[in-house]
Amino acid sequence: MIINLRGVRGSIPVPGKDTIKYGGNTTCIEITTDEGDKIIIDGGSGIRQLGNELMKQLPVNCSIFITHTHWDHIQGLPFFIPLFVPGNNIDIYGSFDPVYMKDLKTILAQQMEYCYFPVRESELNANITYNNLKEGEAIQVGSATVTPLLINHPVLNFGYKVESNGKRFFFTGDYEPPLNIYLPEDEGYIEYQRLIDQQKQILTNFIQDVDVVVADCQYTREEYLTKKGWGHGTHDSCIEMARAANIGTLYFTHHDPTRTDQELDRIYQEVMSREDLPSTEFYIAKEGTIIEL
């Protein structure tokens, strides 16, 4: 299994001299199994260049799994050229939105209406299927099994575990560990904490001993004090996830758009200098990083 990080930035693309080292494209991960099956997680702006490269060998056959439909995870799809070409076969998976009662196709098609984009979804010429996933519903893509797990974010968000030939990879999408909305002295505190502990244990069990995790780490512990409830993790939350689940390697991703390369280096050095780290190997996710399992 080869994993290529095509976009590691959160919120909005930020090209420029301050993001050359780690990249400015928003979320996209390309996974290629040993058998050549192509799996793509999220369609942030990083998917555009991936599409250009895939067009060198037709037809394109791939499966795209969307963690959630916030812009930074789907905004590159209208520029994914394989969608426009007859003979390509593309299966798109994601969640039904129970709040707005919209299926995946409707949500993705709306960002291609004429008021936003010059080509409508109905004019795409590839063979495209849209599939609304349920939590825990395993999908077989060639030799790989992809399983979604619902984890905490302001909109329904799936983390995806990809397993193939004994290797296992997990991507959180956007994830903030759930917080107790009650104070310790409140009547509902203990019961709510019990539910939170259950949710964390479900995630821990789901990713136990996974080889590689790419996890949302948009904020530092200092920034998080004013960002609670925004739906994103910290280095501390990622480290605790790795410790609890005995993760082999974890990449910090979804870098805040205001973060420069120099700031990412400085923060990484500070985190790595801590004395209480688990045995997990930690890295900063970098656009173009290739991970071989």
Automatic annotation (TrEMBL):
SMART domains: Lactamase_B (SM00849). InterPro entries: Metallo-B-lactamas, RibonucZ/Hydroxyglut_hydro. Gene3D superfamilies: Ribonuclease Z/Hydroxyacylglutathione hydrolase-like. Residues 25-216 form the Metallo-beta-lactamase domain. This is MBL fold metallo-hydrolase. It comes from Alkalimarinus sediminis.
